[in-house]
Amino acid sequence: MTRYNQVPWPLRPLVEVYGWTVALLLYIFFASLRLSSSLQIMHIPEDPPLDPSSIWASWHEDVVLNFVLLPLILKKSSAPVWLNHPAWTMRPIHHLMRLFGIKVIMAATGQGGKQGMEELNRQLIAGGSTIINPDGPAGPKYVLKRGVVQMAAATARPVVTMRYKCNRYWSWPGWDSKRVPYPFSRIELHLETKIFQGSEDQLAQNISESLAR
Questions:
Q1: Where does the chain show beta strands of DSSP type E?
Q2: Residue 67 sits in which domain range?
Q3: How many domains would you assign to the chain?
């Protein structure tokens, strides 16, 4: 897939118009869902206080719910920075993140992924935060990949698992069946902190079990 920086210069203004138009429409859409719905964020009482510099993790099916609650999540985070695919078709998401005040690192496997991960790790060590979908970008669904565990081990940052409950939604067709809430829904976000202790395998198991509850 063509990266944004590989798009010919004469076509880039068209890509930018496409990117900003869709980004603004998505921003309005997510805002309307947020304002019309009942939202609640809950943290397990026995957990330590949330660290603003954390790695937030949710299954890929909940990326829409993440954007609906994003302003509330960002209030609990510091210096947000996200890794996202550099394809030109992802330009709306790049700009949507910027509308939320998120720094974007454009990289993916085979397209600067190693360098992008190293830069993200540096940002986390410096006090930043990020959100990751550990079964993305292409599945299998609910199968945790090692990236989130390796990130936690490399940065000594806690992982905050994000588990959603939504009473009214429809599922977007695709491998992950993204949950898209209807207006006036009731959305609960349950948070649980997992700290790297012992082995990567143990942390991976802890994260998977927390997301599956």
A1: 38-43, 55-57, 81-84, 103-106, 130-132, 159-166, 169-171, 179-181, 186-194
A2: 4-212
A3: 1
Distance CA 54, CA 124 (A): 8
Each of the 213 residues of the chain gets a pLDDT tens digit; together they read 799 999 999 999 999 999 999 999 999 999 999 999 999 999 887 788 899 999 999 999 999 999 999 999 999 999 999 999 999 999 999 999 999 999 999 998 777 888 999 999 999 999 999 999 999 888 899 999 999 999 999 999 999 999 999 999 999 999 999 999 999 999 999 999 998 877 899 999 999 999 997
The Cα 71–Cα 60 span in angstroms is: 19
Long-range contacts of 7-10 (CB under 8 A, 24+ apart): 7/88
Q: Is the peptide bond before 140 cis (omega within 30 degrees of 0)?
A: yes
Of 73, 15, 10, 67, the residue nearest 43 (C-alpha):
73
Distance CA 75, CA 59 (A): 21
* Helices and strands of the chain, counted as H and E runs: 7, 9
- Overall residue count recorded for the chain in this entry: 213
Taking the C-alpha atoms of 78, 81, 82 and 88 in order, what is their torsion angle to the nearest 10 degrees? 140
Quote the pTM value: 0.93
